[in-house]
Design goal:
Layout lengths: L2 H13 L6 E6 L7 E6 L1 H7 L1 H8 L1 H4 L8 E8 H11 L9 H13 L3 H14 L2 H11 L5 H13 L1 H6 L8 H9 L8 H15 L6 H4 L1 H4 L9 H5 L6 H9 L24 H17 L22 H13 L10 H13 L12
Parallel strand pairs: 1-3
Antiparallel strand pairs: 1-2
Length: 361
């Protein structure tokens, strides 16, 4: 029998529930009894999953008093989801009705370590991932340690921040997920006001259901860079207590007395660098970076900027040297965002590059 024909026969056996030697009983909200059963074949399942293999043919089963496992109750997976899992194991094409079904299917595939099903679901999620569903996907699957999916979601959080924090799903996101977003150095926002307004909207939406919601969001609030805002903008926020507002305003430049800052609030005074800003920094740095020649000395034109005492003070020269040697003077695109920003600020303060906010996209 040809291989394709054999696959067709297996699928027909599953569809017709023929010669099944194991039965699964799952929850079914559409059945009056609250549960439904579906049959399968142990050998087929054991080939697709090492979990099923251990369940049916493992040493513990062989040594037990009742080695024949014919009926299995599943309490945590709905019958609709489990049927989808069995369908893909038997080679049937499947479709997901919505993101919730997709994530429940991923849970089932992960529980039984069905690698083909996990790969199929991961590829489907990556194809359908967008700002509007990235929060739900991240919250639903973050605990499964799928690095590919987590990175894809985090990238959307960075690159499409305004869309993410303005969509309806943001209002249902876990506080710890919001904290994760707000920790990033490279959010694509106009200013920290965007983050403040998003949290105020979140609190307003959830306050009637959870009177401790602002406390739960405190770790996210602590990531907001209030010191990049004006005193007027800070005074208008509802995220801080009155005494905190006074202390933050007192810490603004030119005073910048961080001793007055409330504990746990961010002391960062630099604006976040979005992906587009990072590209701008590379653009304005490249011409001087590629030469690394100091133009401050008329008598000596052949030494590097970071070794010239007339161009930079000792601290900044030392910082540049450490960063350059760390990357062995490789391309700027290889630098971490923090190191790239440090190099840019030193060059900008020395008058060697243009302010990126004046660079045309």
């Amino acid at each position: 029998m040809a291989r394709d024909s054999f696959s067709v026969v297996l699928l027909q056996m599953f569809n017709n529930q023929e010669k099944c030697d194991v039965k699964f009983i799952c929850k079914d909200k559409n059945d009056s009894s609250g549960k439904s059963a579906i049959g399968a074949h142990k050998l087929i399942l054991s080939i697709a999953s090492d979990v099923f293999d251990a369940m049916f043919f493992g040493i513990m089963v062989q040594e037990s008093d009742n080695p024949s496992v014919n009926e299995i109750k599943i309490e945590d997976i709905d019958i609709t989801i489990f049927k989808l899992l069995l369908s893909i194991i038997y080679g049937k094409d499947i479709e997901f009705e919505n993101d919730e079904v997709t994530c429940k299917f991923y849970y089932a595939a992960n529980k039984y370590n069905c690698k083909d099903a996990l790969k199929f679901t991961t590829n489907h999620i990556l194809k359908e991932l967008k700002p509007e569903n990235s929060l739900f996907i991240y919250d639903s699957l973050n605990n499964f340690d799928n690095e590919v999916l987590n990175k894809a979601c985090l990238k959307i959080f960075d690159d499409e921040t305004l869309k993410v924090i303005s969509c309806d799903q943001f209002l249902e996101a876990y506080p710890v997920t919001i904290e994760t977003i707000y920790k990033s150095d490279s959010l694509t926002i106009n200013s920290e006001l965007d983050l403040i307004k998003a949290l105020e909207r979140y609190i307003d939406h959830n306050k009637d259901f959870d009177n401790e919601i602002q406390t739960k969001l405190r770790p996210a609030i602590n990531q907001i860079r209030f010191l990049t805002l004006s005193s007027k903008e800070i005074a208008e926020t509802s995220l801080l207590r009155p005494e905190e507002i006074i202390s933050v305003i007192a810490s603004l430049p030119p005073n910048q007395d961080f001793k007055k800052m409330p504990q746990s609030l961010s002391l960062l005074v630099n604006k976040r660098i979005s992906k587009s800003d990072g590209l701008k920094m590379i653009r304005v740095l490249n011409p001087v970076f590629s030469k690394q020649i100091c133009n401050s000395c008329r008598t000596c034109m052949n030494h590097s900027l970071w070794s010239c005492s007339k161009a930079l003070d000792q601290t900044r020269r030392s910082t540049l040297q450490q960063i350059f040697e760390k990357y062995n003077h490789t391309l700027l695109s290889d630098y971490s965002r923090t190191d790239l920003e440090t190099v840019y600020e030193i060059y900008r303060s020395a008058g060697y590059v243009t302010n990126i906010h004046t660079v045309i996209q």
